[in-house]
Amino acid sequence: MNSTQRNNGFLPLEAYAALGNGRTVALSGADGSIDWWCVPSMDAPPLFDRLVSPDEGGCFVVAPDAPFTAEQRYREDSNVHETVFTTDEGKAVLVESLNSGPAGRLPWEELARRVEGIEGTVRFRFEVRFGTAADTVSPYLSHSANGIIFHAGRVLGMILTSDGISREVEEDQHFAGSFTVSAGTREVVAIVAGRDEPLVIPDIAVIDDRIDVSDREWREWSDAVSYQGPHKAHVRRSALALKLLLYSPSGAIAAAATTSLPEGAGAGKNYDYRFAWVRDAGYTIKAFLRIGAEAEAKAALTWLIEQLVHNKTRVCYRLEGGPVPEVSEIDLPGYRGEKPVRRGNDAAIQHQHGIYGDIFETVAGFVAAGNILDNQSAMLLAELADECADCWRQKDSGIWELPEKRHFTMSKISCWQALARAVELAEGRHIPDNCRERWERERDRILEWVEDHCWSEERQAYLAYPGADGLDASVALAVRFGFDGRDKLEKTIRAIDKELKSGPLHYRYTGMDKQEHCFLACSFWMAEAKALLGHREEAEKDFQAVLDLIDRSSGVYSEMAEAKTGAFWGNMPQGLTHLALIGAASTLADGE
Fold it and tell me: Where do the GH15-like domain residues begin and end (predicted)?
């Protein structure tokens, strides 16, 4: 399907680009429609929600009013995005940004869209429809001496336009107008918005200039990325995608910017990922350290430690901190008609042993880069090592957050990883070493347990859990963790390829081909594992094959993709996908 054409009201996910400013993210489609934007933060209710409600949802459209083709791209090393529209009469480019200022993030939301004429003449229409938050608010307009103000529940703001734009409709839920550009001319339309706060309303010319200010800020940040290895462009783009998911008010890392985008058709596997997972935070911190983004790594680690101190050990937290809300279902049609649409996540009440490994691997990488820990953090880590040593024998929900608790192989390996790193940190005098000998003994007991219970001579692989019939692709991470048993890990990697690989991609674990599509992070993990096991040429080939299949968008990736077509499924931008890409590329670079 053409990326500018809607099927039953929906664009393919790969037709969306992400705009962001360190607090929220908007998804802009190839047809000029912004279909998702939560104000003022990623986990707030959406002002625009056409993504999950094609007929009644809110949107912000800037597009030619004649048939067109579109080409999407980000500006180089920037999160300012461009869409080039071509019609029979001419060509124009839509430049769009969630603006920031020269001193960083603005204290209001400023969504700016500028149209520049390139060739001939192109007539555009613009349209703003406000969402009703699943019929819980009724947007309306009010008039003041300073202009027309829109209200959508607790969100308020103004729509600003340059002089050449004609406003033809100004109704409570619907703004619309038109304008024409020719070679060398430009017009700007923008939304300034906030939630329960007084708003500064800049002049439209200032907003226009700030698009280029934002572009310079993104480029300056990218210039500081130190990665110079293979696939540099993809690593930088993934770093920019992760930067969009970094919630700057707190330092939290959102797993994704959306909720309820389905992982497959008809399975009901639609989840809210607008929260911060310990796993994702840990992997992001390591990725930022590998590419030289120390400030972001420090902010994310500080947030993580604060959550562990004040909110106990949890799988995930709200972006502002604290427990994730209970799951509730929202009465909306859902993307591609796939219900339910959810708010909240059941992972919040689960226990996953993987968080111990994630925390300690993160801290180990932080101090290995020459950084230091404060006393509170050091004491907390020693307590967490004791907690891990006490509970590793218990069942948990595993990395895939399954409803049934089991002795998942990867969970045990994560506990081994946590205690192995804790011992190393204690030996380096980064954390108290009072219980170091106990951690060593428990580490070795976990290794023995995994060898005795999780290895299958018949399958020549580590099983997903003792007695399981199938495999788990996340075991590929054990290679990165330095888990003992290189020969068995090599055999497990080959077994995973044989059983879970489809084209260049991989399913998460046995049986998922009937419920969902391939999990992109798994394929990057597999490529990294092969490189670490000494198969660099094969790893490079696998890595490139994944990129060749999915590299059909502006450069932001979803959680999953179809094995044959590369079509995107699941929430996006998906932090774990971009993290895995950076990890695999960095490992390939280390081997050069």
Answer: 230-566
